[in-house]
Write a structure and sequence with these properties.
There is one protein chain. By secondary structure, the chain is α+β, with helices and mostly antiparallel strands. It folds into two domains: 2-222, Endonuclease III, domain 1; 239-361, Nucleoside Triphosphate Pyrophosphohydrolase, CATH 3.90.79. The protein has helices at 2-19, 31-41, 46-59, 63-68, 71-78, 85-100, 109-113, 120-130, 140-149, 159-178, 186-200, 219-222, 283-291, 337-342, 347-355, and strands spanning 239-250, 253-258, 269-270, 273-276, 294-296, 302-308, 311-322, 332-335. Strands 1, 2, 3, 4, 5, 6, 7 and 8 form an eight-stranded mixed β-sheet that branches. The radius of gyration is 25 Å and the shape is elongated. It starts with a helix and ends in an 11-residue tail after the last helix.
């Protein structure tokens, strides 16, 4: 591997210097800013993350500001990125750094690994990108690049194959550290080069091998196997899920409730809803179970579709009118449109909130 690393590293570093995208978090070595970007980029595309990161850094520019922020504000800033546990873990980790590290961002890999929401990849990314330490990283892009470069056809999720990929990543960043001179940031740039190559050139579909700086060293390119590698193994089948949601309006206000702690999308707000099975559902009965005495509008509702990991989710939305006394239940609230805009919703329910001002849900009685 030493000889191959010696050939690959200079090519990757030179390519990164001339081709790296100008991303806002690449203009700083602040570990806090880099940490936020790395957490946001998990399961999320760069173009989506940029405005979120910029807004976050404007409103919560330091560890201290994140640690003392109201949780509702943190969730609102995260709204739309999904996987909200990431946001809650960010605040837990920030609080731990303030109390246990006197507000100084840890530089030691093991100390980072002990923080909420930080795994091996994220700890390595912070150590190498922020502090220029020779610590390896391995995300989806790097796995794809290494599997093709070295012709690894086993499933990367398998224990032995994954360990091999980590060793390859470590050999490359150690080689970069050995060639570092002066104020160069070779460890940082080498790891970013691997990620950048996977994101822009060595893509999952239709890789641009002619533009790849290491194509002459690539087993998959030489053997015309880029379409086969990496081998993801058998993918789990997708699961269909269906929900019925109700928009309940009274005197210009809308009924929402807050999800309890320790569930998916904990502490986010949503419209009354229930998961159902089967194609034929007694909508009035569902509404009564959720809301008590009520009437479901015979006006047409609308349907939303979205995907979360392997789940294909459909949400059918209806208008309902409460006929009995005022609904009183823990976590429920009547909100104006202005109030709704200040709450953090899961993506599907944010879309519902965005549509309730149109003719479909206009309140003709007020």
């Amino acid at each position: 591997m030493d000889a191959r690393a010696g050939a690959l590293v200079p090519l990757l570093l030179a390519w990164f210097r001339g081709n790296a995208r100008d991303l806002p978090w690449r203009r700083t070595t602040d570990p806090y800013a880099i940490w936020i970007s790395e957490i946001m980029l998990q399961q999320t595309q760069v173009r989506t993350v940029i405005p979120y990161w910029e807004r976050w850094m404007l409103e919560l520019p330091t560890l201290q500001s994140l640690a003392r922020a109201r949780p509702e504000r943190v969730l609102k800033l995260w709204e739309g990125l999904g996987y909200y546990t990431r946001a809650r873990n960010l605040q837990r980790a920030a609080a731990a750094i303030v109390t246990e590290h006197s507000g100084r961002f840890p530089k030691v890999f093991e100390e980072l690994l002990a923080l909420s929401g930080i795994g091996r990849y994220t700890a390595g990314a912070i150590c190498s990108i922020a502090f220029n330490q020779p610590v390896p990283i391995l995300d989806g892009n790097v796995i794809r690049v290494l599997a093709r470069l070295f012709g690894i056809d086993q499933n990367p999720r398998e224990k032995e194959t994954n360990a091999r990929l980590w060793k390859l990543a470590e050999a490359l960043v150690q080689e970069a550290a050995g060639t570092q001179r002066g104020r160069a940031r070779n460890c940082s740039h080498l790891n970013q080069a691997l990620m950048e190559l996977g994101a822009t050139i060595c893509t999952a579909r239709l890789p641009n091998c002619l533009s790849c700086p290491v194509r002459k060293n690539c087993v998959a390119c030489r053997e015309n196997r880029t379409g086969e590698l990496p081998n993801p193994g058998r993918r789990p089948a997708s699961t269909q899920r269906r929900f019925i949601a109700f928009v309940v309006q009274r005197k210009g206000r809308f009924l929402v409730h807050r999800r309890p702690p320790d569930v998916v999308n904990a502490q986010l707000w949503e419209f009354p809803n229930v998961e159902v099975t089967g194609d034929h559902t007694a909508i009035p009965r569902l509404a009564k179970n959720l809301l008590g005495r009520c009437r479901v509008s015979d006006r047409a509702g609308f349907r939303l579709k979205h995907t979360i990991t392997r789940y294909r989710i459909t949400v059918d939305v209806f208008r309902a009118e409460v006929l009995g006394s005022s609904i009183r239940a823990p976590g429920r609230r009547w909100c104006s449109l202005s109030d709704l805009s200040k709450l953090a919703f899961p993506s599907a329910h944010r879309k519902i909130a965005g549509r309730i001002g149109n003719d479909l849900f206009a309140d003709k009685s007020t």
